[in-house]
Amino acid sequence: MSTNPPNLRPDLAPKAMFDDTRRAGQPTIGMVSLGCPKALVDSERILTRLRAEGYQISADYAGADAVVVNTCGFLDSAKAESLEAIGEALQENGKVIVTGCLGAEPEYITGVHPKVLAVTGPHQYEQVLDAVHGAVPPSPDPFIDLLPATGVSLTPRHFSYLKISEGCNHACKFCIIPDMRGKLQSRPVHAILREAEKLVDAGVKELLVISQDTSAYGLDRRYDTHPWKDREVRSHITDLARELGQLGAADDLWVRLHYVYPYPHVRDLIPLMADTSNAVLPYLDIPFQHGHPDVLKRMARPAASAKVLDEIAAWRDICPDITLRSTFIVGYPGETEAEFQYLLDWMDEAQLDRVGCFQYENVDGARSNALPDHVPAEVKQERWERFMEKAQAISEAKLEAKVGTIQQAIVDDIDEDGIATCRTKADAPEIDGNLFIDEGTEGLSVGDLVFVEVDEAGEYDLWGKLT
């Protein structure tokens, strides 16, 4: 049985799932969706529009009339992966339309793959549709091509990503996402709640709230209010979370918050997480990136590490069961051994539950490329290994403390041997650990919410039995 690997990339979405049914003569579009959950949502929106126009969707190059590749441009390694996927699609199919973050640099793509039919940037849905129409004309049959109210989902039916905004107002020196996706653009709060309600009505048990900066939601809208049900609701993360948490009973629905910057108003979310009648999980995904104040300053990050430790302590006072996950960068330009050791000491104090880590990479267009004193590759690797060893030890101790406890879990998969792969409230799909049940699973189905007594713990995963 595989366990959660310590070097799992925290920027990747779950593998897209496709319905392969096809009517006779139906035009078919292949889809390759790379990168983060935000890109996966973009893929879902594109495919929803295509399905409404009568296209079938396939994950198979050979069975498709054309292929859309939704790319990632987060790191140079991600760009290389995107170029490889485009090349594979061209070789296997020949008709390829490129979209996504890397599409913000069309010359970069066409310089390597000049035969692509079109290149569009992130969330340019109309341009993608125009390119598909040019390559493969639609052929809808309104009596057969029925589209569910929730649209096309590329995740398992029991969980769904809920994107609340696009873009970002920060200017972190290592990041080019604002250049690719633009400034913050928040969705109206009633539109988000309407989408979430449809998902819950369709049987979704877990809503994963995502954006580039979840804490900043509504700032660009000046926190305007909109009517929802019998009341007015602000476009603000606290109000949004409160309303999402009331869409279902706490034991029947999970609402998980991702990409939350530790602004002071985040503390207003913690009482919602401590309230066991609310569906908002006691879980915060916060991209701290580093612990040393000088490194954070060179990164141009909107955070102060000492104050963050105070905030973490305050959150745990209000909600002792809160799970904190984060990502970090080691080997940032100018990072000294003393600054790295400070980060390790900071980790000892912060005691974060779930941690991912990148080795710093230059990215074309990032201001950090021009910083002095870049760290040698072998030093970055050595620091990454030391960091992960520290994070692994913390994780192992925290999971060991859960042995003997009762945890609610959601069933993600049941294999042919009857072993159920589940997640607790402390675990987001793909990026965190799992809870395995290896006996007594005959009556379980994927998507069930169950209670499990934990009887064994590893470095990243738990094992248990149904109660």
Task: Summarize the helices and strands and which ones pair or pack.
Elements: E1 28-33, H1 37-52, E2 56-58, E3 66-71, H2 76-92, E4 96-100, H3 106-112, E5 118-119, H4 125-135, E6 159-163, E7 165-166, H5 177-181, E8 185-186, H6 189-201, E9 206-210, E10 225-228, E11 231-234, H7 237-244, E12 254-257, H8 270-274, E13 280-285, H9 293-299, H10 305-318, E14 323-330, H11 337-350, E15 354-359, H12 377-400, E16 406-414, E17 420-424, E18 435-437, E19 449-457, E20 462-466
Parallel strand pairs: 1-2, 1-3, 3-4, 4-5, 6-9, 9-12, 12-13, 13-14, 14-15, 18-20
Antiparallel strand pairs: 7-8, 10-11, 16-17, 16-19, 17-18, 19-20
Short structural description:
The protein has 467 residues and is of the alpha/beta class. 30% of the residues lie in helices and 21% in strands.
